[in-house]
Amino acid sequence: MGRKNKRLPRHLVVFRTSAMGDVAMLAHALRALKEAYPDLRVTVATRPVFRAFFTGLDLGFMDVDIKGVHHSLRGMWRLAADARRLGVDAVADVHGVLRSVMFRTALWLRGVPVAAIEKGREEKKEFIRKGGRGVKPAKHTVVRYCDVFRKLGVNMSCEPRYQTKKLYHKQ
Question: What's the rounded Cα separation, in Å, for the pair 7 and 99?
Fold first, then answer.
């Protein structure tokens, strides 16, 4: 799909530091992003232990030490300064926690476009409240990640590659 839109980012930083399963699912969204935009430079800001999930993908990494140097507000601002030095021109916050809000805000204040995940908390609360009856299924996490990339002007397909079946119980 090439870079037809000049406002598309050239170097994107993607922030996700915890919940191992969610970090593992991020690899699928990044694979779809790199298939659509092979020239896009992508840096993943995550903990070093999660690097293995992204093997085979052409990505850069920023190690986030959430128990050490990047623990505090000052640490997140320091991490944002490191991202600026790398030449990042867009931020995709696929975590949506206080730490990632501090990181993206530090970059946003410097004029870097940011996009954040919508976790669908209200949909999930409704699902629980109604016991799942009469409620449409929630969006898959990988699709939510791709929605964050789309907010930054990226045009890509990222639908799950499986079909769901509705199971009927005979009575």
Answer: 27
